[in-house]
Design a protein that fits this description.
Strand order of the largest sheet of chain A: 2-1-3-4-5-11
Number of strands of chain A: 12
Shape of chain A: elongated
Strand content of chain A: 5-15%
Distance between the termini of chain A: 69 Å
Radius of gyration of chain A: 27 Å
Helix content of chain A: 40-55%
Low-confidence stretches of chain A: 343-357
Oligomer: homodimer
Largest sheet of chain A: 6 strands, parallel
DNA sequence: CCCGCCATTGGGATCGATTGCAGAACCGGA
DNA sequence: TCCGGTTCTGCAATCGATCCCAATGGCGGG
């Protein structure tokens, strides 16, 4: 029913092989023949049949992106970047959502195999190294992103979570803060562990003890951010700064602070993790640690395209599980200030706003 | 290199045709033969080659989802729903991002054709009805979502934007508000027009005039929300309620209100459009109009699967461009209250918080 | 003037699964 | 025992593009 290569060949008065070569940019073809075929293809509105093409050539021109969810700002930024890059290189992106469920992830990896994706970017649960290695072995390009799996043979792109948290904490310390609250993710996650380590390290470097009362770690949910904030405020009223290193929790932290009448940065300096566009519209604009979602996506695509290139050249080199890091960046805005005088009476200064309308 | 149907057939001691029929759930096959083949397939770890399958059967088991971006909460909710449903029905989802650029959209629609997607859900720019109709004609199932294209022959699923804005406005009117501000999207968009119409209608039904000074319409950006809020507060200090019907602008409206020291709902009642999970964690929890993103996605998938089913049954019935609406829902939380006494002196009552906690 | 090389082109097999059609096996009834 | 019918199975063609291999034609050098 639709126009096939055979039709184009007939219209151009050449054979199918010649037509194929002309359109696939092969070098062993006369320039004028190519022009002839291209013209015929255009005239007939020829659209190649990808199924046939990938059946024969074993290249699907499909890449898969597996993410935990799309709500997380970093994830959908990455999805946008990957889709854009893929399209530019004539690859199509199939998107999969695991909900952080290893079983769903496993199913997805199998399906990906069936469809013969050429490449795969995996923001994984970390528990399916075997399945992803199987794909690698069968010739699929694989890149792990954000969450590394130790036994994976594929390259891994990680955020510099430890550095980011370290830098943020140090910034607060250098402003003079000594009682710095921490709201983070669970310790069985990569980012939860690393960011906490950065916070700890910075304190230690300043010779400060780790005060458990200043620390709240819990699930990636707004509700947790809200309750954690309340607990911190109640437990340690003399806290002068807060590092909110759990992205989802930030949505609960901000309103909880507002509800408690805490003024930022007058009463409390605040740094949030992961840059979400609207945090710059906050009042005051919030200082954040940008984990570089865009760059993470770009680097992962670079590595994937490299592998893809190599596979086409049929030079499968020593695969390695090298790890790359994308640096974090502290973006200073208006939510941090030196702590006020310690002797200050909190309750006296809180009720009034400073009135700048 | 990998296991093919031929291998399975050999292992089970049957022909390729029989093996194929056994695995594809054909009815003309003996139960025990099927069991035999299935067992062999499992044992060998057979994974069908989708490219070959779709070449022959003309079914790609691929569906496309085209969205403008992934930042908008409704869009990524829809992406999640569609992906989930698709996976359950053994379809794979390819995701495309247009950035609301009609030219990109056109390219994407063509590519979708090449890959022979079985179906397509299009949150379009509205300007490529021709291309999508071409797909429809070539046997691809198509559903338009959120943004309708008048000349499209495919069914369309829309949000009840007019009703939603109408209900929200009426709610404010019934609480006693008379000066209700409106921040909305540009009038060349579907939602921008419809929501404004709902606002207008409600006012008219209450015999109130449309006051241009209370109205701000602009781009889907946080920055616009912020500046629009400032302008409204300055221009009409006696405004007692605000309907923020521009989703992206909400991110600017909330901080702008906080910055201006406006208390919600004491000084101003507030309703936002589109339910974003963390608005319930706001202080106070924000009353919203839920446009039903989840239901929009579900209904679009239902319609798509229906078409897909029909195509398999080879009963292409009268295609029609019927339009469906998913009702909006007012979710009342804590950001609305009756207006305070008109004679009240605003400046006198503002400094103190009402002291809870 | 003939030979051989290079640059192109065409023929036809091939990728792996699906499917129309023909035929085998089996059943019961006459 | 034979026949018609039903149920299941196998053969072989097919989908559309790719690519190995052989063939063609032109041209320069010996």
């Amino acid at each position: 029913m639709s126009v096939t290569l055979k039709d184009v060949a007939a219209a151009a008065g050449v054979s199918r092989s010649t037509a194929s070569r002309a359109l696939s940019g092969s070098s062993l073809i006369a320039a004028e023949t190519r022009a002839l075929v291209e013209e015929a293809a255009r005239r007939l509105g020829y659209r190649p049949n990808r199924a046939a093409s990938s059946l024969r050539s074993r290249q699907s021109h499909l890449i898969g992106l597996v993410v935990g969810n799309l709500v997380n700002a970093s994830f959908h930024t990455i999805a946008e970047v990957v889709q854009r890059r893929a399209a530019a290189e004539d690859y199509q992106m199939m998107l999969y959502i695991t909900d952080a469920d290893p079983r769903r992830e496993e199913t997805i990896l199998k399906t990906l195999g069936e469809h013969g994706v050429d490449g795969l970017i995996l923001i994984g649960t970390g528990s399916n190294a075997a399945a992803s290695n199987a794909l690698l072995a069968s010739g699929t390009a694989v890149v792990n992103l954000i969450r590394g799996a130790t036994e994976s043979a594929a390259p891994t792109v990680l955020a510099a979570d430890r550095d980011g948290a370290h830098e943020a904490t140090r910034h607060l310390l250098e402003l003079g803060h000594r009682r710095i609250g921490y709201i983070g993710g669970p310790s069985d996650t990569n980012s939860g562990r690393e960011r906490f380590a950065g916070y700890e390290q910075a304190l230690r470097e300043h010779g400060l003890p780790i005060d458990e009362r200043l620390i709240e770690r819990g699930p990636f949910e707004p509700a947790f951010g809200s309750s954690a904030t309340d607990r911190l405020l109640r437990r340690v009223p003399e806290m002068t700064a807060l590092l909110a290193a759990n992205h989802e929790a930030v949505f609960g932290v901000l309103p909880a602070l507002a509800a408690a009448g805490v003024r930022v940065p007058d009463d409390l300096s605040l740094i949030c993790y992961e840059d979400i566009s609207w945090l710059r519209w906050w009042h005051p604009p919030v200082t954040v640690v940008d984990n570089g979602a865009r760059e993470l996506g770009e680097l992962a695509m670079d590595l994937l395209l490299q592998q893809l290139e190599r596979d086409r050249g049929k030079v499968p080199p020593a695969r390695n599980g090298r790890t790359y890091r994308v640096g974090a960046q502290l973006i200073q805005r208006g939510s941090c200030a030196p702590p006020r005088d310690q002797g200050d009476d909190l309750s006296a200064s809180r009720p009034g706003r400073d009135g700048t309308r």
